[in-house]
């Protein structure tokens, strides 16, 4: 991974048409501005991870594998139905 | 009662209170705005989040404290607002909200639960959303441990 040190107000260029500017840095985090073509998707990484994880979760298993997995899950640890 | 065609259990009768609206859908499933929470005693504590518009879409989930009894919520102010919850504090589990961790089954691997992006259901308004954490405290692939070692039978 390329690591660069930038101060507030300084920018980075990625390729010909993406600019990333550090707008402000606070103890809560860095405020980033992004200038990119409309067709370039800009996503928080957590959102992408959540999308992928949801797709995996929706896929599930079928038939005997599913019932087998269900049985294992039911016997999963720290089960306490009062914890709702 | 409401008759729901489900992915795993055929037709089920559900109480209208088990239906939750997701105004923003779920990431990757933005068009799915209504889910019914299916709790069957024989599958407890596992629950199912069945889409009302797509019978083939059904998530498996655990109440989050079942996966991690020390779990601490960190719902963002934006998400609290979207759920009509007090933005000044974290909601109380079981009283204000029901919080679920979606489970992923992997062929030949241990199941995992998504603790990074829990499903938060407002018990008063029956609205829900997936609250993606901004911190890095919890994994999106938390291993669901098997109890067979702890409780041999």
Strand content of chain A: 15-25%
Low-confidence stretches of chain A: 77-84
The overall average pLDDT of chain B, rounded, is 91
Mean pLDDT of chain A: 86
Largest sheet of chain A: 3 strands, antiparallel
Give the helices and strands of chain B as they follow along the chain: EEEEEEHHEEEEE
Helix content percent band of chain A: 25-40%
Helix count from the secondary structure assignment of chain A: 2
What's the main sheet of chain B like?
Answer: 9 strands, antiparallel
Shape of chain B, please? globular
Spell out the key features of this protein.
heterodimer, A: 84 residues, alpha+beta, 3 strands, 32% helix, 24% strand, elongated, B: 153 residues, mainly beta, 2 helices, 11 strands, disordered C terminus
Description of the molecule:
The complex is a heterodimer of chains A (84) and B (153). By secondary structure, chain A is α+β, with helices and mostly antiparallel strands. In chain A, 32% of the residues lie in helices and 24% in strands. Chain A contains two helices and three strands. Chain A has a three-stranded antiparallel β-sheet, with no helix packed on it. Chain A is elongated. The two termini of chain A are 43 Å apart. Mean pLDDT of chain A is 86; it is low at 77-84. By secondary structure, chain B is mostly beta strands. In chain B, 7% of the residues lie in helices and 35% in strands. Chain B contains two helices and eleven strands. Chain B has helices at residues 64-67, 77-82; strands at 2-6, 10-14, 19-21, 34-38, 47-51, 58-63, 97-106, 109-113, 119-122, 127-130, 142-143. At the A-B interface, α1 and α2 of A face β6, α1 and β7 of B.
């Amino acid at each position: 991974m390329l690591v660069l040190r930038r101060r507030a107000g300084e920018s980075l260029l990625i390729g010909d048409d993406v600019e990333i500017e550090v707008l402000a840095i606070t103890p809560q985090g860095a405020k980033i501005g992004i200038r990119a073509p409309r067709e370039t998707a800009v996503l928080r990484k957590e959102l992408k991870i959540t999308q992928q994880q949801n797709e995996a979760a929706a896929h599930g298993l079928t038939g005997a594998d599913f019932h087998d997995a269900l049985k294992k899950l039911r016997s999963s640890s720290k089960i306490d139905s009062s914890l709702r | 009662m409401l008759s729901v065609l489900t992915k795993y259990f055929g037709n089920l009768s559900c109480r209208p209170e088990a239906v939750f609206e997701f105004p923003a859908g779920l990431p990757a499933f933005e068009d799915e705005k209504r889910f019914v929470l299916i709790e069957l005693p024989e599958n407890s504590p596992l629950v199912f989040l069945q889409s009302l518009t797509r019978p083939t879409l059904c998530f498996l989930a655990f109440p989050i404290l079942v996966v991690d009894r020390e779990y601490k919520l960190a719902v963002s102010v934006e998400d609290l607002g979207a759920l009509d919850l007090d933005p000044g504090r974290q909601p109380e589990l079981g009283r204000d909200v029901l919080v679920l961790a979606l489970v992923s089954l992997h062929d030949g691997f241990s199941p995992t639960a998504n603790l990074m992006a829990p499903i938060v259901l407002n018990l008063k308004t029956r609205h829900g959303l997936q609250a993606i954490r901004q911190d890095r405290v919890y994994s999106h692939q938390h291993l669901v441990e098997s109890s067979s070692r702890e409780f041999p039978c």
